[in-house]
Amino acid sequence: MLQRTLSIIKPDAVKKQVIGEIFKTFEENGLKIVATKMIHMNKKTAEGFYNVHAEKPFFGELVEFMTSGPVVVSVLEGENAILKHREVMGATNPADAAEGTLRKRFASSLGENAVHGSDAPETAAYEINHFFNYMELH
């Protein structure tokens, strides 16, 4: 099934200058980039995006991290794109991530884990609409 999913290259990975390597990994795994842009999230945008975690103890730290520098938000498209993207990213904790996954290659910790990806079709729709309007999707 052809799907779209949201990808965020987080501030730690942008700072490491690995955007191109991450994009190459997406494309090598059948994920087509149909929209992308670099942004610097403000606190309001980050809090809105991560509102599902608002009551969790790590919320403040997450918002602070995601506003600490620019991020690259992208919409990826492909067969079963949500699952494929999550496989390419690897486990949330890079210590548990499989060899060759983005988090194993580029993340330094659970908190600074290089990339984000939607976890379900409903989440993907919400997340894509948070950052892109229909005219930006190609």
Describe this protein with a few key phrases.
four-stranded antiparallel β-sheet; alpha+beta; 7 helices; 138 residues
Quick gist of this model?
The chain is an alpha+beta fold.
Map the helices and strands:
Elements: E1 2-9, H1 11-15, H2 19-28, E2 32-39, H3 43-49, H4 59-66, E3 71-79, H5 81-89, H6 102-106, E4 115-117, H7 121-131
Antiparallel strand pairs: 1-3, 1-4, 2-3
Task: Characterise this structure.
The protein has 138 residues and is α+β, with helices and mostly antiparallel strands. It has seven helices and four strands; from the N terminus they run βααβααβααβα. The protein has a four-stranded antiparallel sheet, with helices on both faces. The two termini are 18 Å apart.
Count of DSSP H/I helices: 7
**Strand order across the biggest sheet?**
2-3-1-4
Which segments are poorly predicted (pLDDT under 50) over 5 or more consecutive residues?
none
Instruction: Give the overall average pLDDT.
Output: 96
SS content category: alpha+beta
Spell out the helices and strands N to C: EHHEHHEHHEH
Assess the beta-strand content as a share of residues: 15-25%
- State the major sheet: 4 strands, antiparallel
| Share of helix, binned | 25-40%
Gyration radius, in Å: 14 Å
Q: Estimate the global geometry from the Cα principal axes.
A: globular
Q: How many extended strands?
A: 4
Distance between the termini: 18 Å
